Amino acid sequence: MAHEVRRVCVIGAGIVGVCAASWLQRDGHKVSIIEAAEPGRGASYGNAGALNASSVTPVAMPGMLWNVPRWLFDPLGPLSLRWRYLPVIPPWLVRFVRAGTPEKVRAQARALRPLVGATLEALFPLARDAGAEDLIHRLGHLYVYRTRQGPERERLAWELRRANGVEVDAFDADGLRQLEPALSRDYVCGLLVRENGHVSNPLALVQRLLAQVLRRGGEIVHARARGFRLDGRRLVAVHTDRGEIAADAAVICAGAWSKPLARALGERIPLETERGYHLMIRDPEITPRIPTADAEGKFVATPMDEGLRFAGTVELAGLEAPPDWRRARVLLEQGRRMLPGLAAEHPEERLSVWMGHRPSLPDSLPVIGPSAASPDVVHAYGHGHVGLTAAPMTGKIVADLVAGRPPSIPIAAFAPTRFA
Ligand SMILES: Cc1cc2nc3c(=O)[nH]c(=O)nc-3n(C[C@H](O)[C@H](O)[C@H](O)COP(=O)(O)OP(=O)(O)OC[C@H]3O[C@@H](n4cnc5c(N)ncnc54)[C@H](O)[C@@H]3O)c2cc1C
């Protein structure tokens, strides 16, 4: 171990925080995780569980601008914008639309591939130590279409995946039937990415990784981080609502709530939240074997340990607005159309709904890198739709930065200063 052993505060016990803590401990650091709520109950709780190494396509794609009016008038569509949030969101939306040029999306995809592509390789050692291997599966991810023109309409997205080394197998209607007999016969074609994996209980993954961090001598501090005490450019302590915690280094992994912490360092990061929903059916009559995305409906059906989860949708409404549960119920209607073997009615006690806050930057890339105010504070948030997938590699990069090693993948595209 050539580097100095440091007291590191990791702010946030979501999947990014626990992966960062796990990698930091492997370098011998003394790790304290500061968590304001219950570990793993943020966005990391209810996601679709996909560990999609192929997730290189940004959300803002060319031509997106023309969709904005439709989002405003269809509150239950796959992407919606609440009227009440309209005074707040324009600066982010402008950056979002501007990020969707053909050249920019190509650069974003190139930057994302090494971060997400190595997800299983970076997660397996942590999962093995934490006794969480049974939660991780490698069955691929299937994208299905109701129209033959569907893949063609998403040509750029598939081109970006292929250009970045993602291998794809195409299935016609008969092939789909054999691969996933549970699927509706309305689907006429599909594309399978075999290298992808999934987590069958995302909360349990965070909890087991955290338990391992604690077994290795880490601690969890139940407090809300508020800011940092610096001596010149050196970190002295992290401020919390329960007092100061002395630290030589800190990592901001507070997901969608990271913005005020960056602000406390004098940095303005255009972090927003893309809210998403899930609906789960306990003891479903039928379930797909492979996580399956209805590519046109923009939702995913994932077989989970505790039932069948339909997840997706994007709602721009900020951190405070109450959930619009109709958006989760729509997922149930869509799910029943995807899997006609599901009952037409389910008793309420077998259904559960959830809303979570994806931490999102307008260019669909996270912020990973040292703070401009202090080399001792590292930003690691804003992973949007791919945070579960990108967390293991993000944790590794964080450990490299804290140790003063060059990261194993290029991170210039994730620089916190790119919005200045
Ligand atoms: C519907 C939906 C489906 C998704 N599906 C997928 C998927 O299939 N695959 C994928 O890769 N990604 C998916 N995502 C995205 C993924 O869930 C997120 O990107 C990821 O969970 C973000 O993790 P995080 O650790 O940054 O944030 P979080 O899990 O939100 O954790 C942040 C933690 O920080 C704590 N915190 C906040 N502020 C403070 C503070 N000041 N002090 C201390 N603690 C603080 C919070 O309490 C929280 O526990 C999905 C998201 C949604 C909503």
Descriptive tags:
2 domains, D-Amino Acid Oxidase, Chain A, domain 2, FAD/NAD(P)-binding domain, six-stranded mixed beta sheet, alpha/beta, 420 residues
Structural commentary:
The protein has 420 residues and is of the alpha/beta class. It has 13 helices and 21 strands. It has helices spanning 15-26, 43-46, 68-73, 90-98, 102-117, 119-130, 150-153, 155-163, 173-179, 202-215, 259-264, 326-338, 387-403; strands spanning 7-11, 30-35, 50-51, 79-81, 136-137, 141-145, 169-172, 189-193, 197-199, 219-222, 225-231, 234-240, 243-246, 249-252, 272-281, 292-294, 299-304, 307-316, 351-360, 367-370, 377-381. Strand 17 and strand 18 (307-316) form a beta hairpin. Helix 1 (15-26) packs parallel to helix 13 (387-403) and helix 6 packs across helix 13 (387-403). The protein is globular and about 65 Å long. The mean pLDDT is 96. The structure holds flavin-adenine dinucleotide. Flavin-adenine dinucleotide binds at residues 11-17, 34-37, 41-44, 47-50, 224-225, 253-257, 276-278, 311-312, 356, 358-359, 381, 383-389.
Short description:
The protein has 420 residues and is α/β, with parallel strands linked by helices.
Task: Describe the secondary-structure layout.
Layout: E1 7-11, H1 15-26, E2 30-35, H2 43-46, E3 50-51, H3 68-73, E4 79-81, H4 90-98, H5 102-117, H6 119-130, E5 136-137, E6 141-145, H7 150-153, H8 155-163, E7 169-172, H9 173-179, E8 189-193, E9 197-199, H10 202-215, E10 219-222, E11 225-231, E12 234-240, E13 243-246, E14 249-252, H11 259-264, E15 272-281, E16 292-294, E17 299-304, E18 307-316, H12 326-338, E19 351-360, E20 367-370, E21 377-381, H13 387-403
Parallel strand pairs: 1-2, 1-14, 2-10, 4-18, 6-16, 14-21
Antiparallel strand pairs: 3-9, 5-9, 6-8, 7-8, 11-12, 12-13, 15-18, 15-19, 16-17, 17-18, 20-21
Flavin-adenine dinucleotide is lined by residues 11-17, 34-37, 41-44, 47-50, 224-225, 253-257, 276-278, 311-312, 356, 358-359, 381, 383-389.
